[in-house]
Design brief:
Chain B: It comes from Friedmanniomyces simplex. Chain B: It is found in: Cytoplasm; Nucleus. The complex is a heterodimer of chains A (281) and B (295). Helices cover 29% and strands 26% of the residues of chain A. In chain A, strands 1, 4, 5, 6, 7, 8, 9 and 10 form an eight-stranded antiparallel sheet that branches. A five-stranded antiparallel sheet of chain A has the order 11-2-3-12-13. Chain A contains eight helices and 13 strands. By secondary structure, chain B is an alpha+beta fold. A five-stranded antiparallel sheet of chain B has the order 8-1-2-9-10. Classes of the chains: A alpha+beta (281), B alpha+beta (295).
């Protein structure tokens, strides 16, 4: 008599030999070699990519910007790619990194928005203020996205993006935070992803050194600093372009422009730069 | 009922000798006891309205909404067993989400009606289940302009055909009603529940054929819907009810293609007019009676 119930009803090992579980799917304990003899792999590097996203908190809202380029390696492959995605009246997400992962996240957020609106009207009774309070804030959205990113990195299958979430929190105060493919998150009155973290962040910090400074910053000034940063990024980041999107989120909602041309573009300064390439100084 | 006691009404999936499925017919009885629900397909949108019978004074007013949103652009209202309706809505939402994950675009109202019809019909086939005790009204607006697929990041090539037909007209308001048998039809105006007879005869008087010209506008539709629900409630006057109304318009209209609750002000205005219209009718009747008395 076999006293182990696990074995009841199964072919007996002493007659048939033990079951070879390698044929089972991986998640059921299978370990059959991958067809090409390699272990399963997921994304090892991004393919089509977007470069920096930058953002600044000001007095009553947030300005966020990203250019419209999607690069395929060093090739400027797509020049009309909108990398700022408005979620609702309170939040915009800026995507850097892999464009297909951005599209995945965009669809994910769209289905989230559909689900969020199932109960719209049922909480507010046509009362706009109550509806506004029940609406998902930028802070909620950032929490959600950061958990999605962390889950995927824990599965060793990361979404190859660096995100900025800009908007208003549940108290309608400006909110800005970062999340990336590692599940890392942080927040600051000024934020930039990718090259922007090296090239734009110092410029933005000059204008907004701390939280207090951002609370005194006017919208016009914030927009001006962002525009200046986008120009510097175009001059110094080889994977950038001179057409970009910019969104301002405040209590009036999202003001998104997706075809801003760089103003007063001039390469005159390049003459003075020496010591690289084929120049003979 | 002659069928009782014959045994053919005890199970789904068993026909009676004269070719009827009695379980489905009993389900229709359950619907006929529910609060009246109507849908009106107007020129520039769809209105859904419901006579929500108040089952307890302890229920919070205007809470516990019964008309549900599926995806963004479709509304569902139903009469009959509420839990069955909840399940119907939940399935409709799943269907809409699964359509999106396949086609990266919102589900057309006609396709949703088709899938829900198939789903409801499946519950008439097996002895292990009972049919849905609801009749569902599905109304929505299909985008009239070509929309980008979900997640599109650019506008695509500027030259070449791209497989698009120039000036093709598509989309518009759609309204379907799905019965416990799983059969569904497209309607200009749909009504179900206790007051459906009164509601239907009112709907028939309305100009709802878009080809005939002077088809009612969405705003007229809202007022008419409120009046019809109030009228349909007349035979059931001893019970309290709340009027629930939602609408969906074109992108250029008041809801911008989304299914939403009718704003409070407009609903209250429609209710005021509805009450006035009913009082007017009562007075007319009284006058007629008085005239008869005099004679």
């Amino acid at each position: 008599m076999d006293h182990f119930p696990q074995a009841w009803g199964r072919p007996r090992d002493d007659i048939y030999g033990s079951y070879n579980p390698s044929y089972l799917p991986h998640n059921k304990g299978g370990y059959q070699a991958h067809p090409n003899g390699q272990p399963n792999t997921h994304t090892q590097s991004p393919i089509v990519t977007g470069t920096s996203v930058i953002a600044i908190k000001f007095k009553s809202g947030v300005v966020i910007a990203a250019d419209n380029l999607a690069s395929y390696g060093s090739l400027a492959r797509f020049t009309d790619v909108k990398r700022l995605k408005p979620f609702n009246k309170k939040a915009v997400v800026g995507f850097g990194g892999d464009v297909s992962d951005m599209q995945y996240l965009d669809r994910l957020l769209s289905s989230l928005d559909v689900q969020e609106n199932y109960r719209s009207g049922s909480s507010g009774h046509g009362d706009e203020e109550a509806e506004n309070r029940a609406m998902m804030s930028a802070k909620n959205l950032h929490t959600y996205l950061s958990k999605v990113m962390y889950k995927r990195r824990t599965d060793f299958n990361p979404l190859w993006n660096a995100l900025l979430v800009a908007g208003l929190d549940e108290k309608s105060t400006p909110f800005l935070a970062f999340a990336d493919l590692l599940g890392t998150t942080y927040s600051s009155p000024t934020l930039a992803t990718g090259f922007g973290a090296h090239l734009a962040q110092p410029i933005m910090r000059r204008a907004v050194p701390d939280e207090e400074a951002s609370q005194n910053l006017e919208r016009e000034k914030a927009v001006e600093v962002v525009k200046q940063c986008m120009k510097v990024l175009f001059y110094r980041d080889a994977r950038s372009m001179n057409v970009y999107s910019m969104a301002v989120i405040d209590e009036n909602g999202v003001d998104l422009k997706e075809d801003i041309k760089l103003e007063a573009e001039s390469w005159a300064f390049a003459e003075g730069i020496k010591g690289y390439g084929t120049q003979t100084v | 009922m002659t069928s009782i006691g014959t045994g053919y009404d005890l199970s789904n999936s068993v026909f009676s000798p004269d070719g009827r499925n009695f379980q489905v017919e009993y389900a229709v009885k359950a619907v006929e006891n529910g609060g009246t629900a109507i849908g009106i397909r107007c020129k520039d949108g769809v209105v859904l309205a419901l006579e929500k019978l108040v089952t307890s004074k302890l229920l919070k007013k205007d809470a516990n909404k019964r008309i549900a949103t599926v995806d963004r652009n479709i509304g569902v209202v139903y009469s009959g067993l509420q839990p069955d309706g909840r399940h119907f809505v939940s399935r409709a939402r799943d269907e809409a989400a699964s359509w999106r994950s396949t086609y990266k675009a919102p589900i057309p109202v006609s396709s949703l009606a088709n899938r829900m019809g198939a789903y409801v019909q499946a519950y008439t086939l097996y002895s292990s289940v009972r049919p849905f005790g609801i009749t569902g009204i599905v109304g929505g607006w299909d985008a009239e302009k070509e929309v980008d697929v979900d997640g599109a990041v650019g506008s695509g090539p500027k030259t070449g055909s791209g497989g698009k037909v120039q000036g093709a007209k598509e989309g518009g308001p759609y309204l379907y009603m799905i019965e416990p048998s799983g059969s569904y039809w497209g309607y200009y105006g749909a009504a179900t529940g206790k007051g459906r007879q009164a509601a239907k005869s009112e709907l028939e008087k309305m100009k709802l054929d878009p080809k005939a010209g002077d088809c009612v506008s969405l705003e007229e539709g809202v007022k008419e819907a409120a009046r019809i629900i109030y009228l349909a409630h007349e035979d059931n006057k001893d019970k309290d009810f709340e009027l629930e109304m939602t609408w969906v318009s074109a992108m250029s209209g008041p809801t911008q293609g989304r299914h939403e609750e009718v704003p409070k002000e407009l609903r209250e205005e429609a209710e005021r007019l509805a009450k006035k219209a009913l009082e007017g009718e009562d007075e007319e009747e009284e006058e007629e009676e008085e005239e008869k008395m005099e004679e």
